[in-house]
Design goal:
4-stranded mixed β-sheet; lipoprotein; GMP Synthetase, Chain A, domain 3; 2 domains; alpha/beta; Spore_GerAC-like
Length: 399
């Protein structure tokens, strides 16, 4: 009886064991690496960039000139409908677990991104480690059709380029789905997303001719950031304004800047190697004030004038100019965004909401209050290294 009971228990537990009930065979799916979202009138135009298996694993008889990816475009009243309509073109089921980039068209961004993000966040196949960007002066579908010279898969090229730029150049910023939804849901914080534009010929960019030249006729280049008021895009930040935003948000890893030579014609270039930013808020006469402190560590990378950087007065002048330049960069950018766009992309409202909830509860429309917010900026630049030589090469040559 005991053995029979054990057999019955084991038999009942077998169906509960983990298995491969949800497996996806490679010959039954199409790997989606890029997704483009556009709005045309009242319909969505959806583009999917798929890995071409015949190019990834070439077989006898398959042309070596075949594209490594294939892009399909379809329209629908909703995103799910457009993607299902696409099944009449795509021979296999769309699989989103390897998605790298979502490109949102400028027109869709201006009309609101909450609705398309609802579908993306609900899809159980989609992970949250992909990046989202805005197509500048073009449709998302056009961006996904441009051939990449450095990486055969354009979506991968967009992903790795943005990741490298985010680490080494402060004029871009990467954002994932989780971070974007947080910015949309937080009181007192509006999102900003990096823009990408097509430089050169869009027509040649869609052809393999684009990768056959040393200087490709068409390139994808990250350019500025799109800023939002709630979920609607309201404008673009230029390079300096994007840098200011990243400084305030403490998201600068490394970048490069330059200063005028003290008392000389020429410039001193500086590698920014470490940045620490901190925001605080206080109340004065019943009004909140935000204080920003930015600490920047930098190394001298290039000198194009005849100055002696071993002299303390020269270093003091460089520090003074560096402090003022960063302070001016941030202050001017904040004032422009306050007056021109009236949307708090810096997160000042979120800070006040956390630190002074009583003051925050008095505001019905924070973006209107943001326009009048008093912000003070303090910058502290620190010169760490001067390089392996003291004098400039030009100065040594003239001796």
């Amino acid at each position: 009886m005991r053995q029979l009971a054990m057999c019955l228990i084991i038999g009942m537990l077998i169906p509960l064991l983990a298995g491969c009930w949800d497996r996806n065979e490679l010959n039954e799916i199409s790997l989606v690496v890029g997704l483009g979202l556009d709005k045309v009138d009242d319909t969505y135009k959806v583009s999917v960039q798929l890995v071409n298996p015949s190019r990834v694993a070439p077989k006898t008889g398959v042309s070596s000139n075949a594209s490594p990816v294939v892009t399909f475009v379809e329209s629908g009243k909703t995103l799910p409908e457009a993607l299902r309509r696409m099944e009449v073109q795509v021979p296999r089921k769309l699989y989103y677990a390897h998605l790298r980039m979502i490109v949102i068209g400028e027109e869709l961004a201006k009309s609101g991104i909450s609705k398309p993000l609802d579908f993306i966040s609900r899809n159980p196949q989609m992970r949250t480690d992909f990046f989202l960007i805005i197509a500048k002066n073009s449709d998302a579908s056009e961006v996904l059709k441009v051939f990449s010279r450095m990486d055969p898969i354009p979506a991968n090229n967009l992903y790795t380029t943005l990741e490298a730029s985010d680490k080494l150049w402060a004029a871009t910023g990467k954002i994932t789905l989780d971070k974007l939804i947080q910015d949309l849901s937080k009181p007192g914080k509006s999102p900003a997303m990096t823009g990408v534009e097509i430089i050169g010929s869009k027509i040649i960019g869609e052809s393999t001719l684009n990768v056959e030249k040393i200087a490709p006729p068409a390139l994808l280049r990250y350019s500025g950031m799109a800023i939002f008021k709630v979920d609607r895009m309201v404008g673009w930040l230029d390079e300096d304004e994007t840098k200011a935003l990243n400084y305030v948000q403490n998201t600068v890893n490394q970048t490069v800047g330059y200063l005028s030579c003290p008392g000389e014609n020429g410039t001193v270039s500086l590698d920014v190697v470490n940045v620490r930013s901190h925001m605080n808020t206080r109340v004065k006469n019943g009004k909140p004030i935000v204080d920003i402190h930015v600490r920047v560590e930098q190394n001298i990378s290039d000198i194009e004038c005849n100055v002696d950087i071993t002299q303390k007065p020269v270093l003091d002048k460089l520090k003074e100019e560096g402090d003022q330049k960063i302070k001016k960069l941030i202050t001017n950018s904040i004032h422009k965004i306050q007056k021109q766009y009236g949307t708090d992309i810096f997160g000042f409202g979120e800070l006040i909401h956390q630190k002074n909830p009583t003051i925050w509860s008095q505001y019905k429309d924070w973006n209107e209050e943001f326009k009048q917010l008093e912000v003070h900026v303090q910058a502290d630049t620190i010169l760490r290294r001067m390089g392996t030589i003291v004098q400039s090469v030009d100065q040594q040559t003239k001796q």
